[in-house]
Amino acid sequence: MRVVYAVPVRHIEQLVDGTLGAFGIETQLFAVPLPAPMISPLVVALAVPHAEAHDGVKHPLSIKVLGPDLSEVAPALETEIGIAPGENTPEGWECRVVTALAARWEATEYGTYSVEISASDGSISVPYIVSEPQA
Fold first, then answer.
1. Long-range contacts of 122-126 (CB under 8 A, 24+ apart)
2. Cα–Cα distance between 72 and 42 in angstroms, integer?
3. Which of 37, 47, 59, 84 is the most exposed place for a label (fewest CB within 10 A)?
4. Res 27: pLDDT
5. 100/71 Cα distance (integer angstroms)
6. Which of 55, 58, 57 is nearest to 85 (CA)?
7. 91 burial type by CB count under 10 A (0-12 exposed, 13-18 middle, 19+ buried)
8. How far apart are CA 64 and CA 82, in angstroms?
9. Arithmetic mean of pLDDT, 90-106
């Protein structure tokens, strides 16, 4: 499984038709007094080659948050996700799922934090800049 993309957003909600509404796309700059509780919602697309997509087969996925010194600032989330072809997925095509994820962490110093989303076939890093509020 691979992470196709991860887009930071301000807010995600499920719409009446079942799709996801993402608001405040590319929200990555925060001017806050410290310490500050942070929530980083993300719209994430995951893909599995058709040959690896079967009901019941789980693929590892982890999410961790690194601080400005690149140390982990919150416990990593380790999980598994199953992706199976839909009834309209052509043979041989990648099987994809788009989902909402969120990382919770506390900013204790100013600088660049990153949310790292890792799957078996690579990872994506999403930076967040935390700065001092201007008077």
1. 122/2, 122/3, 123/3, 124/3, 124/5, 124/6, 126/6, 126/8, 126/28, 126/40, 126/42
2. 19
3. 37
4. 85
5. 25
6. 55
7. exposed
8. 20
9. 89
Q: How many residues does the chain have?
A: 135
Residues 10-64 pLDDT 10s: 999 889 998 889 998 888 999 999 999 999 999 999 999 888 887 778 999 999 9
* Nearest in space to 27 (alpha carbons), one of 14, 16, 44, 40: 40
Q: Are 42 and 7 in contact (CB under 8 A)?
A: yes
Cα 62 to the chain's mean position, in Å?
Answer: 9
Q: Please count the other Cβ atoms lying within 10 Å of the Cβ belonging to residue 83.
A: 20
The pTM of the whole model exceeds 0.85: yes
Residue 105 has pLDDT above 90, yes or no: yes
Q: What pLDDT score does 14 carry? A: 86
User: What is the residue whose two structure tokens read 């691979």?
Assistant: 2
